[in-house]
Amino acid sequence: MTAHTDKPQLPNEDQLFLLLRQLERAPDASQRSIAEALKVSLGKLNTQLRATAAAGLITMEERAGPDRRQRFAYALTKAGQAKKERLIDAFLSRKFAEYTALHAELTGSVSDLIPLKYRSTLMQNNLAPIPELYVSYESAQKLKVEAAELTSHDLTPRQICDLELLMNGGFNPLKGFLSEEDYNGVVENMRLADGSLWPMPITLDVSEAFADTIELGQDIALRDQEGVILATMTVTDKWEPNKAREAEKVFGADDSAHPAVNYLHNQAGKIYLGGPVTGLQQPIHYDFRGRRDSPNELRAYFRKLGWRRVVAFQTRNPLHRAHQELTFRAAKEAQANLLIHPVVGMTKPGDVDHFTRVRCYEAVLDKYPGATTTMSLLNLAMRMAGPREAVWHGLIRANHGCTHFIVGRDHAGPGKNSAGEDFYGPYDAQELFREHQSEIGIEMVDFKHMVWVQERAQYEPMDEITDKDKVTILNISGTELRRRLAEGLEIPEWFSFPEVVKELRRTRPPRAKQGFTVFFTGFSGSGKSTIANALMVKLMEMGGRPVTLLDGDIVRKNLSSELGFSKEHRDLNIRRIGYVASEITKNGGIAICAPIAPYATTRRAVREDVEAYGAFVEIHVATSIEECERRDRKGLYKLAREGKIKEFTGISDPYDVPENPELRVETEGTDVDNCAHQVLLKLEQMGLVAAV
């Protein structure tokens, strides 16, 4: 027979709450006085103290002294503090329920008070503001003068989005960028150090060079890209994170096909800073100012209109008829008013720009009942983190005063991974949200996959159609919509509103009228510049759009003359080429680029810049290094072999061969005109030029 000792059992929730509250109020009191306050015996108190300490909710520190009745000092741990807060909310919820029942019994009507569940979602009935991190106007003016002397960090667009939601309470309960302890908890188990649910790392990433100038305890000024001071931050933590671990835990895989993982490894700074933020002013937005609301502004709006139940619809795409139908159904199911709450910060590369999307939203807003629907813009930098992102979006909408939230199929999914499979399962986000729903403090409304039933001329949820084999079911995917727009094909009225299609066609005309970029890459001497010149002449001969050649040597001479050939400088040179190409593309021209561009991550960044405005066509000029060295018209390979040129691509520095270029051109044994014609045929196939 095996002997064992039973683990002491925690007291019930009411007793535990009273005990934690008493120990917090009087940490140095004697056991006898604690027992008297709680109205329990000394023996029962000792049992409760041992169980509570064993659960990690309190610490008991023995101290010397003549009075044996005061031999311990007590303190609540962070877990104990979080437990006490949750017990307070549970207690309040019960009292609200009792009040509601009594109110109904005495008056015959239901009270509009909604029980609180967690302090992070305080006053879900929209009757109270949530905490902000801004100081008063007078204090801000004074601090701006003082902050002028502080070390400054110029925020990236993503960091500006994060800072805005920190300062206005959208990221409540966060008080600043995460400390290392909070970061580790969020990465590993979606919880801050105090136990609060929070699924997304909100970190201030900086370069090693900047981090080396910062000491712990130092205040720094946080500025926008025009140098305006938005906030100050006290740096309490500085560390180098394990980014591979962050990618695995937060995004599900350390796979650079995921846009946030690519950002993490190839754009974010190497060092993270953490610490509380003091808000001086909100970021300046010149666009759609009347549509931008802070959490407290939305709460005040709901309070004014008497909206006690509000369902939020998260979107980063234009609204089509299926979206209208599902939002109608969601509002009806939740018996709630509707908040259309699109993201206008940073979304997935390649998405429709937010200017076009907002015009689309405004074009169809009058198709919703004005008395029960409103729209507000959310300046959020999405991470496309699927399940975790859904929980994050729920917490943000709870802070904005919403009581319900629509969670879609593959919510905030980034698409395919490197193996060509979806990063997340179609309903993973709904499952994780449902698991944490009570703690988020907001109810989930399942996304209904709406399809058009032709015989009944209406949208219906796919899973509710019982006669699928007898009716014609129609749907247009996002990919199919983009194809129809690119080729100028009809978009049927059952799918979208004419007003929306008109706006989309203004921004995305047929491909044959769009600007685009042809990006040649290959070894030095591979023939890139020669083919690019031939292509330029052929395109100019065809006419219709201006053509600009951004050859590597020409750019080096006119745009990057001060740069050397280190990896950092070569990356910067390619990013400059990409920026110019994106501007040419945006304005309807054709950019032909012909740098070596040896690094895949830099080429991907340029692709993302260009594809925001038009097509990016990568051409790998696949001439072998041996053939390039044999040609060596400039004598560069000879100098590289002799060690006179350092970091030479293909000799002393690597070249990342493109894995999936739009076209791979072999130049050995093929004349230049034929190579250029191959590129033209590819452009024709993609619909970018008329038949050649």
* Quantity of strands, as a count: 22
Q: What's the overall geometry?
A: globular
Strand-residue proportion? 5-15%
| Sheet/helix structural class | alpha/beta
What number is the mean pLDDT? 87
Percentage of residues in helical conformation = 40-55%
Could you describe the largest sheet, including whether it forms a barrel? 7 strands, mixed
The unreliable regions are 1-5, 112-124
* Rg (C-alpha, Å): 30 Å
Distance between the ends: 90 Å
Folded structure, characterized:
The structure is a single chain. Helix 2 packs across helix 3, helix 13 packs antiparallel against helix 17 and helix 18 crosses helix 24. Helix content is 40%, strand content 15%. The protein is globular and about 100 Å long. It has 24 helices and 22 strands. By secondary structure, the protein is an alpha/beta fold. Strands 3, 4, 5, 6, 7, 8 and 9 form a seven-stranded mixed beta sheet that branches. A five-stranded parallel beta sheet has the order 12-11-10-13-14, sandwiched between helices. It has a five-stranded parallel beta sheet with strand order 19-20-18-21-22, sandwiched between helices. The N terminus is likely disordered.
